[in-house]
Amino acid sequence: MIKPRYKAVIDACSLEPDIDILPQGDQTEIGERGVILSGGQKQRISVARALYQTTSVVFLDDPFSALDIHLSDHLMQEGILKMLREEKRTVVLVTHKLQYLPHADWIIAMKDGTIQTEGTLKDIQKAEPELFEQWKSLMHRKDQEFEKETVAESVTDLERKNLRRAMYSREAVRTEDEEEEESVESEDDDNLSQVMRQRATIPWRSCGTYLSSAGVLLLSLLLLSQLLKHSLMVAIDYWLAHWTSHVISAKIEATARNCSVVQDCGFSHSWYLSIFSVLCCLGIILCLATSVAVEWTGHKVAKELHHNLLNKIILAPMRLFETTPLGSILNRFSTDTNTIDQHIPTTLECLSRSTLLCASALGVISYVTPVFLIALLPLAITCYFIQKYFRVASRDLQQLEDSTQLPLLSHFSETVEGLTTIRALRYEPRFRQRLLQFTDANNIASLFLTAANRWLEVRMEYIGACVVLVAAVASITNSLYNHLSTGLVGLGLTYALMVSNYLNWMVRNLADMEVQLGSVKRINGLLKTEPENYEGLLTVSQVPDGWPHEGEIKIQNLSVRYDATLKPVLKNVNAHISPGQKVGICGRTGSGKSSFSLAFFRMVDMFEGRIVIDDIDIAKLPLQTLRSRLSIILQDPILFSGTIRFNLDPEMKATDEMLWEALEIAQLKPVVKTLPGGLDATITEGGENFSQGQRQLFCLARAFVRKSSILIMDEATASIDMATESILQKVVMTAFADRTVVTIAHRVHTILNADVVIVMKRGIILEHDKPQALLDKEDSVFASFVRADK
């Protein structure tokens, strides 16, 4: 690594303050797909990676889309115009921020997949005057270099807070097993026996959670069927032994009486055969009943836990999703639910079978030769300590295998997704080597797990051999001196030969069950999440049907925080928004303007003050009622898999005429008309079959269909092109003319036509007035934003 160059790239991309937050600095693991980073941080790291390379050509695909004005300007000045130009590297820049066009040596304008025009800026001004006039308002930016303190301020407070929260969540989101292990080890590091005792403890609480989800009736059926089945299996074997003993006795008697066959001496197999057949039929029925009970139990438990988990996640506060990695939540629904659904029932059935078979075998041996009970005690103690140490090792090795498998799968998926970047940077050997390292680590863990199973098997075979030896000696001695029947001797020896196998599988199944119950424990951890307070002081019937009618908003001494452990992001905010007003809210990133929009929907902790909409305090409303009466358009437009009709009107209340009207207002009617099915045309996952701008317009149409008198636009134009932004602004000013619109502005020129502008800084209102009044003040912060945006 070339340190001076590395430092220069970090400075050019304004990454140093972000790196300082990370616990291990630039050596911190950022997780799969950079889960702990914000979109802007990911983008700056990607640009920094390209700047650090020494290639002669650099392709930058919209590198400013997730950055604010200050970060964009700094990256343009220090990274592109300074570093890349000084190194004489060719830059191909794709962007919708046309204010940077004056810096380009050659411009290519695209439209509908073809080149509309190309040349220098002067050439385009002469050849395409109309196009140039459209660009003109966005091109007059002052080429300015920001001072170091300006750069420091431009690094977003919000990104840093999110990064801190993400790092905290990565530290906090551990399994309860790990937390218990660490607490035990910290309390008694020197006492190894105490540590082993705690780690060898069976997770009874998770076991109780699993069994309680099945219900008393089903558990009783499962337990009864298992006991009856294994009792019947012992009865069948005993009956065979009894039958055999009588046959041998009959043969001896037949020989003494000179009978050619035992039937001639009055012995009949019919009685024994009929009883044996009845017992076998009952055994088949009980085996079927046991299998049905096990599967039924597994299905009911999986359904119950999944239903409860889904309800908890749906009703969980937004704080959970901010502090918990998405992959962790998805794992609860995928890997852990699959374990509960597919693996635990099978393991539970195998564990109960091997345990009852082992108990049956030892019981039969003790019945045949009671003296065996003397040897049973030391053998049981030996078996206990073997299983105790094996379970600890097996659990750790299985967790190690799982933990080494996840990086392998993540690396593979990341390699496939980032193949273009990997090939462009010629990192194929490095990623191939990492793949081999992850594969080796996983194979080593798997090898040691197999070796541990062999370790257990050898020791269980030793114990089984001891059982066979003691049972054989005791049975033969008992037969010789106490005239024990040959059938019972054979029965005892048969069961003794199977003990080692039963013990081996019992311990292995117990270890597997302990690991698999970790899934129940992790799900149970999420089930403890406190849901949002959906109930309000007012009932749904007490809220007027058309509320809010006017759209008047009163914000009174409002203080907001994301969590009780965090500092407020809004502090004693007061504002009054009249019905039908168009209000613009601006400020540097992290100033609290987005927290404003979250407060309207009670997605943050409003621990002081209140928001009153049309004379009703929103804190008193049922949460579902509040959110269903307001509309919001976010920076990242969200469309769901399904039809256009479903995305515009999920509740299916609007008529076709209303939907077409909304599409016409959003200027999407011609696009939808050409699709097969029209309103019933399919939207793919995430709306990938539409452009970013079209997805945003669909969200606007959806807001129009809802007929809400209040519309919140949270940086809705930040990631769309100029043409779509113009459509969006026009629709808001016409179709929403009689509604209250609160616009969180990413680009201040979008709120110049607002009735009122609110400028925020560090959670407080810095300025609050009409746009023109603020522009007339030379020392106005809003005026400085507008000047910087020109």
Automatic annotation (TrEMBL):
Compositionally biased region (Acidic residues): 176-191
Record-annotated membrane-spanning stretches: 202-224, 271-294, 364-386
Pfam families: ABC_membrane, ABC_tran
GO cellular component: membrane
Span of domain ABC transmembrane type-1: 221-514
Alphabetical list of PROSITE patterns matching this protein: ABC_TM1F (PS50929), ABC_TRANSPORTER_1 (PS00211), ABC_TRANSPORTER_2 (PS50893)
Keyword tags: ATP-binding, Membrane, Nucleotide-binding, Transmembrane, Transmembrane helix, Transport
InterPro entries reported in the protein's UniProt record: AAA+_ATPase (IPR003593), ABC1_TM_dom (IPR011527), ABC1_TM_sf (IPR036640), ABC_transporter-like_ATP-bd (IPR003439), ABC_transporter-like_CS (IPR017871), ABC_transporter_C-like (IPR050173), P-loop_NTPase (IPR027417)
Keyword Transferase annotated: no
GO MF term set: ABC-type transporter activity; ATP binding; ATP hydrolysis activity
Localization terms from the record: Membrane
Region described as Disordered: 170-191
Keyword Translocase: no
Principal location listed in the UniProt entry: membrane
Coiled coil regions, renumbered to chain: none
Residue ranges occupied by any ABC transporter domain in the UniProt entry: 553-787
Family annotation (CDD domains): ABC_6TM_SUR1_D2_like
Protein name: ATP-binding cassette sub-family C member 8
